Structure formats: structure tokens, C-alpha cells
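Hi R.,

Here's the chain you asked about this morning:
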Amino acid sequence: MATAWMVRAGEGSYLVHDFLEHKCVAIGWLSSQDLSKVKDRNELKELLQAAYVGDTAARTRTQLSQVATFLFDMEIGDNVVTYDSETRLYHTGEIVGAYKYQPALVEGYPHVHPVKWSGGTSRDSLSAPTRNTLGAIQTIFAIPDAWNEIATLLKGGKPPLTEEEEEELEEDDELDEIRRDAASRSREFIKDAVQKLSWEDAQRLVAGILRAMGYKSRVSPPGSDRGKDVIASPDGLGLEQPRIRVEVKHRAGQTMGAPDVRSFIGALRQNDRGLYVSTGGFTREAHYEAERATNPVTLVDMDMLSEMLVENYEQLDTESRALVPLVKVYWPAG
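And here is the predicted structure, written out as C-alpha cells:
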């Protein structure tokens, strides 16, 4: 019996167009190795441990679960779903080929299953339980119940609701809608407040967030920064690893492209980690540059910056909190 799988198209679904154009789903772990000859999970675990030295046992288990599922569990004839967050559409298809190593197909994601894409379902048409299931954080996971609802919708039907579900929806819908609206507005208000900061204050905010995360950071003095606006490390001097060099571009409506990210990467020294913050976002090509960089580089857009601010707000120092003052709001848990 065919299994149905959710396969995410990268962070923010930025690879979804590659998946559709090249008729495939793809993953990027162990990107330099052809895994077609790997016999079992034990051999795969050894490859992961050798490639990602220093990772925790829990992280290795997660990586092993995801890659092993892609190699050994996903089969020809299985159904597959991927999500486009921009259009709020779940694209659906069928796996039509065994695993292949194709490094030239989707840059940075060489492990591929060929897929015949055939349809799509709007997220807005799905029930709350199915939306919750499909919102899980893993890259790859089985979705048997969610697929039943999607398949029903693809055939023009409506997903059945039990009497208990109908009663719960009637009781919870109004409150849940208010909560979602409040949460959405809150996130946008926070981003508005960050956007109003001057470039210098945006640098200070990023430095403050890094301090809240356990690093010691300092903002570079005015003038030519040679690719760094903030320096962060465990000791504050850059002598202990990891040493993080941060570039902050705080320009409304200006998206950073591949040349910007390439220039930033070129200024990194050996063993540096790079954090490139752009409140105007990044192009898809910029993400490609970061993915294939020799030094680990993370791109932080406005959404991610605001999430980092909220997640670490309780640990921020007084000066950093004053840049974007926030208050905690309590909501019923039921």
C-alpha cells in the first residue's frame, strides 16, 4: 500500500520552484556523497558521524531518521506533498523513480527522488487538525491521515467531520480566530518597530540578541568595517570558537542578492561563522551562495530577526530592550 510523505522545500519553501521545475523532491545532507550504495541505517549513521563531527547524539539521530526515510522508506508509487508558503498551496504528486544522486539538478540538494506532480490543495481548504499535522517541523514525515483529507479534496469532495470535531470547532473557532489575528498583528507590529530603528540601533539590537543567546558581542566602530558590523564570541575577543562575524543591512525594501552575500563570505577568515542580517530579505540566489559557502553562514531576514528577538527577549539587557520595548500578553491555554 502506498505511503504518503511530506517533504519540505527548504527553509521558507524557497526550493519549491526547483522541485516543480525539475520534477523531484530533494534533500541536502551529506551533499558530497552518492548514497546509492549505502546498505542500511548503521552504515548511514557512520557516514553522518564522520561528516558532522561534534554534533550531539540527538542531532545525529534526527539527521539519520530524515536521510534514512528518504533513502530506504520512500518508494516508487508513494504519494508526496510539498508546501509553497508564498501561495499557501500544497503541491501533490507521486514518486516515479528510485533514489538518485544528481548534484547538478537542485543546487546544494543532490539526493533526489523523481516525482510526477499532478495537483495542489490550498491550505485554507484543509481542516485545522490536518493543517496542524502538516505544520510539523521535520523535513520529511509520513502523513497518512492528512493525505486522506487531501485526496478527498483533490477528487472534489469535502473532508468528513465527526460530531465531536464539529462541536469542538463551533466552540473554539471564534476564540482561535481572535488569537491567531492577535498573534499575527503582534508579529507585524514587532517587525514595524524593528523597521523604524536606525541602522546603528539595528546593529545594537543584533549585538544585544547575540549577548542574550550567551555570546559576548561588540559593535564595530564607524568607518570601513571590512565585512563586519558586529563581532561575537564566547570570550568577546574572538579568540575562542565560535567566532561570529555579523553584517547588518537595514534598508527597507532592498533585497540582498548573491553578489552581496558573496562579498560578505569573501571577508570571512578561516574558522569564522557568518551571520548576514538583512531586514529587506534575500534573493533565492543569495540563499544558494550561503548554502555552498565553505564557512558556515546563516542569512537572517526580518521574519527570523523578529523571532530571535521574541525568543530571547527575557534575556536581553536593559539597553537592548529599550530599542524595541515589548510587553508579555497572557492567553487561555485551552
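One quick note: The chain has a mean pLDDT of 87.

Cheers,
M.
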